[in-house]
Amino acid sequence: MSATKLLVLGIVHLSGGAHGYQVRSELQSWGAEIW
Asked: Which of 1, 8, 10, 32 could staple 27 via S-S, CB 3.0–4.6 A?
């Protein structure tokens, strides 16, 4: 399983179920675009 998929699944799990917009918003709040 890819690291990206694991990251997205982790966010969905932490938020108790999330849609694409919520996942994107959470990743942006973590500064993931500069990783």
From this structure: 32
If 0-12 CB within 10 Å is exposed, 13-18 middle and 19+ buried, where does residue 35 land? exposed
pTM: 0.65
Tally of structural domains, the chain? 1
Angle at alpha carbon of residue 12, lines to 7 and 17, rounded to 5° = 175
* pLDDT (tens digit per residue) in 1-35: 899 899 888 888 888 888 888 888 888 998 988 87
- Provide the residue range defining the domain that includes 12: 3-34
Rounded distance between C-alpha atoms, residue 22 and residue 1, angstroms: 22
